[in-house]
Automatic annotation (TrEMBL):
This is Orotidine 5'-phosphate decarboxylase. The gene is pyrF. CDD domains: OMP_decarboxylase_like. Pfam families: OMPdecase. HAMAP family: OMPdecase_type2. It is an enzyme of class 4 (lyase). Keywords: Decarboxylase, Lyase, Pyrimidine biosynthesis. Belongs to the OMP decarboxylase family. Type 2 subfamily.
């Protein structure tokens, strides 16, 4: 398969640089007039995929909101991944897995093995058991043409106590992780397949974000950041940013036209902000 970074760059250039989250939490289901049950989950997910999968670069289902319904929720997630990819969207599974050894290898196989029913174009992972603990995911992603998005500087305020701490060699811990990602992407063109998760709400990130890979930027919309904030956070790496919007788009459902219009508006605003940078 063509490497994920290449496919993502093409999708960003043709469909616009935007990732839309699929986050069916209870309050959002209620806003759509749906019950917080498997029927509501299925209706919400199907509507979102049908509205957006043929026009946005990437969809990002949050696995936890499906897992809470047990095996029936996972079945809905499997169907969403299949349908979204069939419609042309890249699927980033937001699972934030992080472990060691055979357990990390099992997580990797769940999302990055083409034989898995949850096979996705990419998965989010946590490196804070040591970047080397991610090796099973990194290797399987490279073999299957998939991607890995590694948490670096997240938008939650609690993250700073770990991510802004100082590594043994004096670098900020987040910078150490970003440097590892840059090494993984060395020589890739037009874009590496190992991305970083960096919150759009951070202001000046204070680290070198030029990793030759994609930068997933949560925080646009409900968390307070706007597309106009992106150049200030990401600097010279802003062209590789994929902003992630969830509630800012999903709150316009269940009307399909309104969902599509909201996503298109965000994509246009992001493109304009990047072009002005």
């Amino acid at each position: 398969m063509t490497p994920f970074g290449t496919r993502l760059r093409e999708a960003m250039d043709t469909r616009g640089p935007l990732c839309v989250g699929i986050d069916p939490h209870a309050s959002l289901l209620a806003d759509w007039g749906l019950n917080d049950d498997i029927a509501g989950l299925e209706r919400f997910t199907r509507t979102t995929v049908e509205a957006l999968a043929d026009r946005v670069a990437m969809l990002k289902p949050q696995s936890a909101f499906f897992e809470r319904f047990g095996s029936r929720g996972i079945a809905v997630l499997e169907k969403a991944v299949e349908d979204a990819r069939a419609a042309g969207a890249l699927v980033l599974m937001d699972a934030k897995r992080g472990d060691i050894g055979s357990t990390m290898a099992a997580y990797a196989a769940t999302y990055l093995d083409p034989a898995s029913p949850l096979f996705s174009d990419a998965v989010t992972v946590s490196p804070y058991l040591g970047f080397g603990s991610l090796r099973p995911a990194l290797d399987l992603a490279a073999a299957s043409g998939s991607g890995v998005f590694v948490l670096a500087l997240t938008s939650n305020p609690e993250g700073a106590e770990v991510q802004r701490s100082t590594a043994a060699d004096g670098r900020p811990l987040a910078q150490l992780m970003l440097d590892h990602m840059r090494a993984e992407n060395a020589g890739a063109s037009p874009l590496g397949s190992v991305g970083a998760v960096v919150g759009a709400t951070l202001g000046d990130a204070g680290v070198d974000l030029d990793i030759n890979g994609p930068l997933l930027a949560p925080g646009i919309g409900a968390q307070g950041a706007t597309p106009a904030d992106l150049p200030g956070v990401f600097g010279s790496a802003v062209a590789n940013v994929v902003p992630s919007v969830s509630r800012g788009v999903l709150r316009h459902g269940p009307d399909v036209s309104a969902l599509r219009e909201a996503a298109a508006r965000y994509a246009d605003e992001v493109r304009e902000a990047i072009e002005r940078a």
